[in-house]
Amino acid sequence: MNLYETLAADIEGQVARGVLLEGEKLPSVRQTSQRRSLSISTVLRAYSLLESRGVIESRPQSGFFVRPRPKASARPAEAPKALVLSSEVDVSRLVLSTLRTIRTQNAVPLGSPYPDPAPFPWTRISQYANAIARRNQHWSVMDDLPPGNPQLIRQIARRHLENGLAIDPSEIIVTVGATEAINLCLQAVAKPGDTIVVESPTFYAMLHAIERMGMRALEAPTDPNEGINIEALRSILSQQRVAACMVMPNFQNPLGFLMPDARKRELVELLSQHDIPVIENGVYDELYYGDSHPVSLKAYDTKGLVLYCSSFSKSLTANYRIGWALPGRYTAQVEKLKFLNTLTTPSLPQLAIADYLQHDGYDRHLRQVRKGYAQRARMMAAAVLRFFPEGTSVSDPQGGYVLWVELPAGVDAMQLYAKALERKITVGPGHMFSARGSYTNYIRLNYSYPWSKEIEDALRTLGRVIGELL
Ligand SMILES: Cc1ncc(COP(=O)(O)O)c(C=O)c1O
Questions:
Q1: Which of 2, 7, 191, 380 sits most deeply, having the most CB atoms within 10 A of its CB?
Q2: How do residues 227-272 score in pLDDT, each as one tens digit?
């Protein structure tokens, strides 16, 4: 290609990808000539080529502009793109695709892992953030180096205390969401090639962390009401070397169980006999339906082997991406890894959440949210059993906002996912929750959104599609 053709192709590409928007002014011929080290005549030739192709237009006295394209409504609506189905499901790609689809296709978000943001005190937190930004004119990134902002750390320690767990604030490391906390903790306790025991099914971020670090996930049988099978775990530990265990004892995603306290104690004791660290995911801890906050494994830990990870993503706001880890005897390693990973967690979100926790109505907000989720858990379960074909069964979540649905044998959840997407409905296919391709006839449904005709219709449609797949 000649120089002018290359320039024209670059600009056309930027328009096609939405970097340059309709009606947007292009840099002047002189500016482009300077920036790209091209002659004026080359730039002019490129612009007139684009004009002749209808990509841009010149406006007298004003310059060159991206031409409006025919409106989307003039073209037939494009069907949402489904993932290519393959026997080898790439879990992380599938998850990312589901999240993107919910956003871009405006689909019914039954497949979303995040709660409905509507009842969250976004405006209040933003007000704190605005006030902080006005007050702090001379901020330095060095103010909040790991372990994190001291004010937020104090608030997190207070919250744990209110929930029945006295922790040393010097153990808290602020992270970018629970995802970073989980990744850092795993990296602190294991190395590539190690075996990590997880629940089965398990939350996919646990699998992503294991995959990312070149470790091996070993899925242990997990009771839908009581959690990881301790006898099975005992047998695994007697047969092979395990570097760590990753569990979610409270309102596990996707099963929703609350592990009984006696079993939690047994689990911690078993692992500490073998000196094996356990990464505990506590992101749903605040979303209990019972009378009191659940106990965490950390409460039974006498050897510093429990690395607790949590965040405000499910209870306050996911957008600020504030999480934390309590890494027990691994605190120094996790702190160092945090520093190496992202240097610091952004200060403004840390301070805004700290102010909210200190001055606002976190408990009130949570009481309301829990009440709504508990009601919708029952409604969603009843609707699924009503609309889905015989042979369907559902979990009995004790907290959180997801329902685990077993479909009749033979229904492939990936096919359902693709067909549902064509109807602008998302579901979480069971494939996401296992590294060995289990749960192909399971889906996870999010019930955090207020009950509506749209949701009921979506469930009815899913039931019909499942019938067709059968
Ligand atoms: C069980 C579980 N753990 C961790 C996360 C990630 O949390 P965060 O958004 O704080 O990184 C999620 C979010 O989907 C989750 O459902």
A1: 380
A2: 999 999 999 999 999 999 999 999 999 999 999 999 999 999 999 9
- Where does 174-315 have alpha helices with state H? 177-189, 204-212, 230-239, 261-273
143 close to 347: Cβ distance less than 8 angstroms: yes
**Strand runs labelled E in 346-454:** 393-394, 402-406, 428-429, 442-446
pLDDT band at residue 425 using 50, 70 and 90 as cut-offs? very high
Q: How many whole angstroms from 311 Cα to the centroid of ligand 1? A: 8
Cα–Cα dist 76/145, whole Å:
52
Q: From CA 252, how far away is CA 294, in angstroms rounded?
A: 12
323 lines ligand 1 (CB under 6 A): yes
Instruction: Return mean pLDDT, the chain.
Output: 93
CA distance 163 to 286: 9
Give the domain ranges of the chain: 3-66, 91-119+364-469, 122-362
- Domain 3-66 fold is Arc Repressor Mutant, subunit A (1.10.10)
pLDDT per position as a tens digit, 67-123: 987 665 444 444 444 433 333 456 788 788 777 877 766 889 999 999 999 999 999
Instruction: Compute, in angstroms, the gap from residue 154 CA to the centroid of ligand 1.
Output: 22
Is 253's C-beta closer than 6 angstroms to any atom of ligand 1?
yes
Confidence of residue 437 (pLDDT cuts 50, 70, 90): confident
pTM score: 0.89
DSSP state of 250: B
Ligand 1: which atom is nearest the Cα of residue 203?
1
Question: Is 3.65.10.20 the CATH number for 91-119+364-469?
Answer: no
- Among 314, 321, 373, 404, name the best residue to mutate to test ligand 1's pocket (greatest count of ligand atoms within 8 A of Cβ): 314
Q: Which residues contact 58 (CB under 8 A, 6 or more apart)?
A: 47, 51, 64, 65
The predicted pLDDT at position 272 comes to: 98
